[in-house]
Structures are given as C-alpha cells and as structure tokens.
C-alpha cells in the first residue's frame, strides 16, 4: 500500500511547495507596494496577489482531502495525475490573477473542474468500498458480469 501512495505523497509535497511559493509572492508584494502586516488593502496590484494567495489557501484543505480520499479508495495513479493538473491550474490562476482579475477566470474554471473530478472519484471510491466491505457486494464485478451477458 505504501508504494502505491508515493505519487500521492509527491503531489502533496509539490502542493505544499506551491503554497509556499504563493506566500512568498505576497511577502515580496508587501515589500514592493509598502503594505505592512496586518493590512490587506493597498494598490490593486498588491490586492490581486494577496487575493490569489488567499483563494489558493482556502481551497487547499479541500484539495488535499479529495486527493487522498480518491487515491486511497479508487486509484492512486488517476488521483495523482488529477492532482498535478489541479496544481498546474492553480499556478496559472495565481499568475493570471497577479496580472489582472480577468486573467484568473480560465485557470479558475479549469482547476474547479479538476477538483470536481477528484470529488467524484472520492465519492465513487467510497461508495464502491462501502458496498464491498459492508454489503459484500462488488459493484464493478456485477457490472462487468452484466455487460458480458449482453
């Protein structure tokens, strides 16, 4: 089981590094635009960077939860690939939002779709595992058997 989770672990560490990068960008922006903590208001350029980092941080626990749930209960490989796509989308979101509010939209929609896929994978994995463990019903085996009969 541990070997199967290496991709999930790698994506998790990469995600933490991405969050650190976003936080550093806020620190640099505070210095550049002379916005001292705890202030969160300043020039629009600063506020966009600040909001981009805050938004990414707000979704981070959701991402980690569904990444690992989908990976443990359905497929570590598919979940890891989705995790990489999500991180790529968030990086594009951050860069886009840093430039203009409008440039955040396409990457935001992309990463939201990937997050919904992970939520779907998590739900499916939990459902299949619940059926197998508690109902003694292998739903996938039953489906394949039914399809093979036709």
Description:
The protein contains five helices and no strands. It has 150 residues and is mainly alpha-helical. It has a single domain, classed as Four Helix Bundle (Hemerythrin (Met), subunit A) (Up-down Bundle), CATH 1.20.120. The model has no long low-confidence stretch (mean pLDDT 96). The chain is 82% helix and 0% strand. It has helices at 6-33, 44-73, 76-99, 105-134, 139-149. The radius of gyration is 20 Å and the shape is elongated.
In short:
This protein is mainly alpha-helical and 150 residues long. It is 82% helix and 0% strand.
Structural class label = mainly alpha
Main β-sheet description = none
Assigned CATH class: Mainly Alpha
CATH topology name, in short, is Four Helix Bundle (Hemerythrin (Met), subunit A)
Kindly report the average pLDDT value.
96
Shape: elongated
Radius of gyration over alpha carbons? 20 Å
Compressed to H and E, one letter per element, the order equals: HHHHH
The CATH architecture category equals Up-down Bundle
Transmembrane segments: 6-24, 59-88, 108-135
InterPro entries: 5_LipOase_AP (IPR001446), MAPEG (IPR050997), MAPEG-like_dom_sf (IPR023352), Membr-assoc_MAPEG (IPR001129)
Pathway: Lipid metabolism; leukotriene C4 biosynthesis
Pfam families: MAPEG
């Amino acid at each position: 089981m541990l070997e199967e989770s290496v991709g999930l672990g790698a994506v998790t560490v990469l995600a933490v590094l991405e969050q650190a990068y976003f936080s550093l960008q806020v620190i640099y922006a505070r210095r550049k635009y002379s916005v001292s903590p705890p202030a969160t208001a300043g020039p629009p350029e600063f506020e966009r960077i600040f909001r981009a980092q805050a938004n990414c941080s707000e979704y981070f626990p959701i991402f980690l939860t569904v990444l690992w749930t989908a990976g443990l209960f359905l497929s570590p490989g598919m979940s890891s690939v989705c995790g990489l796509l999500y991180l790529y989308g968030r990086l594009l979101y951050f860069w886009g939002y840093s430039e203009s509010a409008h440039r955040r939209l396409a990457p935001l929609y992309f990463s939201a779709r990937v997050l919904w896929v992970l939520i779907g994978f998590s739900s499916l994995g939990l459902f299949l595992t619940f059926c197998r463990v508690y109902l003694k019903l292998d739903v996938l085996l039953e489906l394949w058997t039914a399809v093979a009969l036709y």
